[in-house]
Design the sequence.
């Protein structure tokens, strides 16, 4: 038996060979976080190694592909900042080339005509199941005499093209998994062109990757079983092999494949929830790649600089929404305020807390407020929620805050009344002017400062958690702060 071995090795990065990678989603739904992760790692490879990142929309499934899904893919990639380097390729526009490639393989005797109907194949599949056997195509059409084939063709009998799988093995060196080899006996003669001359998935992908001069095919490891078929097609078409890299699947925190039952899986959902694109990129990059050491928080330039194929991991990645929120909180603190404002301001306006005109009237105050609040926020929506006490005339008291800090209503009212007198006497409404007044009050009553600060915090914000009490007082301003205390005293009495 002659062994046919196909092995793909990493492409040498020379001045003559720039890496060309592609992200090739099907426009049959939203941009899933798994797809975004794959796009990101392709993009990072291209940017680190001075390559090109291309986008191909695999829209040959006309029944399920939609313009809305295509737009969602574009918008998701653009929000993440994963810009592609050439015009978008639409697979559906290349059906004629796919058919021509099939015809070339037929002329080279790499494929053969299969006249079996779908009904006949379904029946044979049922018969095999009844015998408790796995159905594989028995090559009966490959054994037809030449004159019978000519007669069927002359009679316009519909036929598909099937690839004639050779004996031996097919293997490659995967950038993630190392050497992978498949016995060819386990690969049945697969269809490359249907009877209507349209390509099946593997045929379209290989034809397009050859035409786009793709040198690195990086995708999810659910495609490993497709790779030996695609390698055989590369050989049959006389094309050089790309390097293959199969990334680990993404699981939920329960260890099962990520799905809607784990929560949001669309990139757009996280945008709506107030996740920063830089944080999303940081989080996605670590789902299947590690920069080494214990480093987790990275900017985009950091990720490009640190990227290497040595960091690609084999084991399944875990998508933990709580870790994403924590990471987003880190990025909220890191991002330049001028870059954060365009993301927070529309959210504040959408929540009805302010208007563009109001913000234009007090730009520095708004900048100071957002800069203050982002420290304790995990999402943009957190900032919006925390901003409410500073932007509304009236506030609601959180029941838990009332129960905890105003348990003795009479004592709380008396304490707030004394604090109001002390604050009203402060000449300089700054943290430096306010702090001595409140700390002196605490000392005179023989209590810790917290016993003053916490009830006062509820009166000013309605919450138990906020920035430092002196920052809160300054952001509210003298008149609004004293008015809030008056309202709280009235509420308690």
Sequence:
């Amino acid at each position: 038996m002659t062994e046919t071995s196909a092995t793909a090795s990493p492409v040498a990065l020379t001045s003559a060979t720039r890496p060309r990678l592609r992200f090739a989603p099907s426009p049959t739904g939203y941009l899933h976080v798994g797809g975004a992760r794959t796009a990101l790692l392709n993009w990072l490879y291209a940017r680190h190694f001075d390559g090109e990142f291309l986008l191909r929309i695999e829209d040959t499934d006309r029944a399920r592909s939609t313009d809305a899904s295509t737009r969602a893919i574009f918008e998701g990639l653009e929000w993440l900042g994963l810009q592609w380097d050439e015009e978008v390729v639409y697979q559906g526009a290349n059906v004629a080339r796919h058919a021509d490639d099939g015809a070339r393989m037929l002329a080279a005797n790499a494929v053969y005509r299969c006249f079996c109907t779908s009904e006949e194949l379904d029946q044979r599949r049922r018969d095999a199941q009844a015998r408790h056997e796995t159905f594989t195509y028995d090559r009966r059409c490959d054994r037809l005499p030449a004159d019978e084939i000519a007669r069927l063709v002359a009679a316009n009998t519909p036929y598909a093209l099937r690839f004639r799988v050779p004996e031996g093995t097919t293997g490659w060196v995967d950038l993630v998994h190392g050497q992978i080899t498949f016995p060819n006996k386990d690969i049945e003669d697969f269809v490359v062109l249907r009877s209507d001359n349209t390509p099946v998935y593997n045929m379209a992908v290989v034809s397009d990757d050859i035409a786009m001069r793709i040198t690195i095919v990086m995708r999810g490891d659910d495609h490993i079983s497709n790779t030996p078929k695609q390698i055989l097609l590369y050989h049959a078409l006389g094309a050089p092999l790309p390097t293959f890299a199969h990334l680990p699947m993404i699981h939920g925190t329960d260890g099962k494949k990520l799905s809607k039952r784990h929560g949001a899986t669309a990139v757009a959902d996280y945008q709506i929830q107030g996740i920063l694109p830089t944080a999303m990129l940081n989080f996605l990059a670590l789902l299947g790649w590690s920069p080494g050491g214990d480093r987790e928080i990275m900017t985009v330039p950091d990720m490009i600089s640190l990227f290497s194929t040595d960091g690609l991991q084999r084991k399944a990645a875990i998508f933990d929404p709580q870790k994403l929120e924590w990471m987003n909180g880190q990025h909220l603190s890191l991002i330049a305020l001028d870059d954060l404002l365009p993301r927070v301001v529309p959210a504040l306006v959408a929540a009805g807390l302010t208007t563009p005109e109001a913000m234009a009237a007090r730009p520095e105050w708004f900048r100071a407020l957002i800069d203050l609040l982002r420290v304790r926020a995990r999402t943009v929506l957190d900032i919006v929620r925390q901003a409410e006490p500073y932007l509304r005339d009236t506030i609601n008291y959180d029941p838990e805050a009332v129960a905890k800090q105003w348990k003795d209503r009479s004592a709380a009212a008396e304490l707030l009344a004394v604090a109001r007198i002390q604050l009203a006497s402060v000449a300089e409404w700054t943290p430096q002017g306010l702090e001595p007044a409140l700390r002196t009050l605490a000392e005179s009553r023989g209590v810790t400062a917290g016993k003053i600060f916490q009830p006062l915090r509820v009166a000013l914000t309605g919450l138990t958690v906020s920035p430092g009490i002196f920052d809160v007082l300054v952001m509210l301003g003298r008149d609004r702060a004293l008015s809030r205390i008056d309202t709280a005293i009235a509420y308690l009495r």
User: Anything to note?
Assistant: The two ends are 96 Å apart (CA to CA).
